[in-house]
TrEMBL record:
<dbReference type="InterPro" id="IPR000262">
    <property type="entry name" value="FMN-dep_DH"/>
</dbReference>
<feature type="binding site">
    <location>
        <position position="167"/>
    </location>
    <ligand>
        <name>glyoxylate</name>
    </ligand>
</feature>
<feature type="binding site">
    <location>
        <position position="278"/>
    </location>
    <ligand>
        <name>glyoxylate</name>
    </ligand>
</feature>
<dbReference type="GO" id="GO:0004459">
    <property type="term" value="F:L-lactate dehydrogenase (NAD+) activity"/>
</dbReference>
<comment type="similarity">
    <text>Belongs to the FMN-dependent alpha-hydroxy acid dehydrogenase family.</text>
</comment>
<feature type="active site" description="Proton acceptor">
    <location>
        <position position="275"/>
    </location>
</feature>
<feature type="binding site">
    <location>
        <position position="158"/>
    </location>
    <ligand>
        <name>FMN</name>
    </ligand>
</feature>
<dbReference type="InterPro" id="IPR012133">
    <property type="entry name" value="Alpha-hydoxy_acid_DH_FMN"/>
</dbReference>
<feature type="binding site">
    <location>
        <begin position="329"/>
        <end position="330"/>
    </location>
    <ligand>
        <name>FMN</name>
    </ligand>
</feature>
<dbReference type="GO" id="GO:0010181">
    <property type="term" value="F:FMN binding"/>
</dbReference>
<feature type="binding site">
    <location>
        <position position="251"/>
    </location>
    <ligand>
        <name>FMN</name>
    </ligand>
</feature>
<feature type="binding site">
    <location>
        <position position="109"/>
    </location>
    <ligand>
        <name>FMN</name>
    </ligand>
</feature>
<feature type="binding site">
    <location>
        <position position="132"/>
    </location>
    <ligand>
        <name>glyoxylate</name>
    </ligand>
</feature>
<feature type="binding site">
    <location>
        <position position="275"/>
    </location>
    <ligand>
        <name>glyoxylate</name>
    </ligand>
</feature>
<dbReference type="InterPro" id="IPR008259">
    <property type="entry name" value="FMN_hydac_DH_AS"/>
</dbReference>
<dbReference type="GO" id="GO:0005886">
    <property type="term" value="C:plasma membrane"/>
</dbReference>
<feature type="domain" description="FMN hydroxy acid dehydrogenase">
    <location>
        <begin position="1"/>
        <end position="380"/>
    </location>
</feature>
């Protein structure tokens, strides 16, 4: 199917699947273990029903949303995705530029395949930085100092990776450090010549912000120790709050009490997230975790949700259940995989046009006005 005929994010996903070697596609498309949590994320969004109201003038629709004093043209942004250039070479910069052009936030990952400095420049004022706390305090401090120097003012620290997720597809695909060109991988590349040629042009992707530290790494264990730590605690968050002068958000919150503690420690916001179902397969979908969390911290901090957003209406569902803003990860990745710059643009357009249409159908002309009164049923409350 051509890009122009793609009607949904899932159409973009199917097109990307045909253009990308399996091992690289699975890297983004996969989730933890049985992938139950990943599936439930989107299903649970679909289960939230909103009741339309009619005879309301919806000839002008306003999708703007203001977060941390900045007004964005849509109530969603691009979630941080590590190593995205392995999925589609050049994807990081394509998406940072798209977010600037559409005036939505772009979150640069600590584990991005392009340096945080280059991404700050491309996102040009619309960039936020996602921080992984390393087992080496000097590595964490190095990233914070670089983020500050690059001009980021919003830091999103990820809490939900005390251990790396177990992704069965990656194990089956024998992903390893250093990357191994097995006969199967070579065959997969040969069957996707466009991807292979682009990869040759862009070079092998790496976790660019740690490139010097990881030179010569020979195992995943080494990479993980540099990137993440099982020892990240509330005391570290307290220190981080004192260290970072800008806005601070915690990403990966699923429990209302954890959200309350974030507020008490002076954080500016949280992202209710389960990492797109890539961490724990036994956890709840985020849209089910959201209402209790939003109730607990309503008015005290900004509440953002991600994981499973595939339709414009999902943003309305999230807003009705207490979120201020949303992020999408794979939806944008599928777009860029389906068609580079034009595909990324298409992903944005699909989500945004669906959102505009859904607002009109709901009988609401301003995104900000969506609220609990639009819920057909008060689920999980
Ligand atoms: C391939 C991939 C890599 C990711 N890398 C990171 C990362 O480096 N840091 C982070 O905080 N979250 C990371 N995430 C999680 C996303 O930020 C986001 O929470 C998730 O993609 C949302 O779910 P969705 O893909 O269903 O929209 C990653 C997700 C994917 C799919």
């Amino acid at each position: 199917m051509g890009l122009d005929r793609a009607a949904s994010i899932n159409d973009l996903r199917l097109r990307a699947k045909r253009r990308i070697p399996r091992f690289a596609f699975d890297l983004v498309d996969g989730g933890a273990e049985n992938e139950r949590n990943m599936r439930r994320n989107s299903e649970a969004f679909e289960e939230v029903e909103l009741t339309p109201r009619y005879m309301v003038d919806v000839s002008k629709i306003d999708t703007t949303a203001t977060v941390f004093g900045q007004t964005y043209d849509a109530p969603f942004g691009m979630a941080p995705i590590g190593m995205l250039n392995a999925f589609w070479p050049g994807a990081d910069l394509t998406l940072a530029r798209l977010c600037k052009a559409q005036n939505i936030p772009y979150v640069a990952s600590s584990a991005s395949s392009t340096t945080l400095e280059a991404l700050a420049e491309a996102a040009d004022g619309n960039g936020w930085f996602q921080l992984y706390v390393s087992s080496d305090a000097a590595v964490t401090e190095g990233l914070i100092a670089r983020a500050e120097a690059a001009g980021y003012t919003t830091l999103m620290v990820t809490a939900d990776v005390p251990a790396a997720g177990k992704r069965d597809r990656d194990i089956r695909n024998q992903l390893a450090v250093p990357f191994r060109f097995t006969p199967d991988v070579i065959l997969q590349c040969a069957m996707n010549p466009r991807w292979a040629l682009r990869s040759l042009k862009y070079g092998a992707p790496n976790v660019a912000n740690y490139a010097n530290l990881l030179q010569g790494a020979t195992s995943y264990a080494e990479v993980q120790k540099t990137l993440i730590t099982p020892g990240f605690t509330w005391d570290d968050l307290k220190r981080l709050r004192a260290r970072w002068k800008g806005r601070l958000l915690v990403k990966g919150i699923l429990h209302a009490q954890d959200a309350v503690t974030c507020a008490e420690l002076g954080c500016d916001g949280i992202v209710v997230s389960n990492h797109g179902g890539r961490q724990v397969d036994f956890g709840p979908p985020t849209i089910e975790a959201l209402p209790a969390i939003a109730d607990a911290v309503a008015g005290r901090m900004t509440v953002i949700v991600d994981s499973g957003i595939r339709r414009g209406a999902d943003m309305l569902r999230a807003k009705a259940l207490g979120a201020d803003f949303a992020f999408a990860g794979r939806a944008f990745a599928y777009g860029v995989g389906a068609g580079g710059d034009a595909g990324a643009q298409k992903a944005f357009e699909i989500l945004h046009l669906e959102l505009v249409r859904a607002l009109g159908q709901l009988g609401v002309s301003t995104f900000d006005d969506v609220g609990p009164t639009h819920l057909s049923k008060y689920r999980n409350k």
